[in-house]
Amino acid sequence: MQLLLYTDYALRVLIYAATHPGEPVAAATIAEAYGISADHVAKAAKALTRQGLLQATRGAAGGVRLAKPPHQIRIGDVVRFFEAGRGTVSCLQAGGPPCKIQPACRLRDAFARAGEAFYSELDAVTLADITASGAGIVRLLRAMPFG
Amino acid sequence: MQLLLYTDYALRVLIYAATHPGEPVAAATIAEAYGISADHVAKAAKALTRQGLLQATRGAAGGVRLAKPPHQIRIGDVVRFFEAGRGTVSCLQAGGPPCKIQPACRLRDAFARAGEAFYSELDAVTLADITASGAGIVRLLRAMPFG
Q: Are A83 and B89 in contact (CB under 8 A)?
């Protein structure tokens, strides 16, 4: 049961933005701090901006910053947005290959309930909860790669 | 949040076996009934046999059948087995790429709790529950592809 790397990166962008309030930060700076792909980070930042979670500023000193306070950003909502249409099993996937037995099979209901339980846990967690040790995160991001 | 196609196929093999008790059934017959890859079905059946959920018989009339009654097979256990090591986020994946901020970040705990909630729902469901409409499933499997 794996999330997209894209969802993973979106969460890291939000964590960076929450722990570096103030000036907008470039996607390249975030990517470098984590040691991950700048292209993927830029793509995730763009999607987060479209979703209204980040504010983007253009220009030389441009970049992104949180559009809302961290305690107003629910992790469940972020994951739901990035994982939209990716059901756990093929019968729950938007446009997925049809399964012959679906009308009589109760697997779909069981996985739908399990998915709800999963998101319900994440809905109880905000970006503020995740970054409660903000200073610790900032220190780790400034450290040399895995040093 | 997607399961492996392999996990999906394993569940379909178990559903077939539960709704066709008695004679062993060949992986090719199961694959044909669902209209899915015979190689993938054979691979899933082999793993289920290793896990002690199917019994395999060799020879011309060989095949697989359930090794336990359907009410003793928990869907959560099957999914856990096939998804072993595939954490939702990279910091929960066995041998996944390290993330610099992990020691201070609470994302991992949140996703661990969400994963537990997901499996806890599936632990409450057995193969017998999934196949409660057994006759309906058998009828759909016998129908022409999506006819």
A: no
| Residue owning tokens 């109880």 | A124
CB-CB contact of B41 with B9 (8 Å): yes
Q: Strand pairing partners for A63?
A: A57
User: Which chain B residue is nearest to residue A98, measuring alpha carbons?
Assistant: B146
B74 in reach of chain A (CB within 8 A) = no
Amino acid at A120: S
A113 contacts chain B (CB < 8 A): yes
Is domain B5-142 given the CATH code 2.60.120.10 in the classification? no
Q: Is the pLDDT of residue A147 over 70?
A: no
Q: B45 or B93, which is more confident?
A: B45
Could you give the CA distance from residue B1 to residue A114 in angstroms, rounded to a whole number? 11
Q: How crowded is residue A144: how many other Cβ atoms within 10 Å of its Cβ?
A: 7
As a three-state string, the secondary structure of chain B is: CECCHHHHHHHHHHHHHHHCCCCCECHHHHHHHHCCCHHHHHHHHHHHHHCCCEEEECCCCCEEEECCCHHHCEHHHHHHHHCCCCCCCHHHCCCCCCCCCCCCCCHHHHHHHHHHHHHHHHHCCEHHHHCCCHHHHHHHHHCCCCC
**pTM exceeds 0.80, yes or no:** yes
